[in-house]
Amino acid sequence: MATSKITYNGGLRTTSVHERSGNEIITDAPIDNKGKGEAFSPTDLLATSLGNCMLTIVGIAANEHGFSIDGATCEITKIMAENPRRVSEIVVNFQFPSNAYSDKDKKIIERSAHTCPVALSLHPDLKQTVSFNY
Fold it and tell me: Signal peptide span per the entry (predicted)?
């Protein structure tokens, strides 16, 4: 079964439907690339997927090791390069709730974040700058 079905709606906008759930994501080309910028751009989703994946894998590891990251957030900053136009860096800034994480918990958090499937799938030339704030 396909993961998603994407329809080009015109006006540099697409709608992606998750085949299993029916959930939708709309993308727009960014303003600096002839778009409206009214929704995530495809490159925004690429960068955001890194944070989503890291938080998910950290959540799995936390559950397996008996601690919680509920309420943790990460902010994503996407940095573009030109010629060719591409994402050159993704900055991920984690903020964890004020739980008393042990040094062991912090190592688990940081190791699992860096080994998420999206992080490991991105080209090594795409810089991943990750910070953890506890």
Answer: none
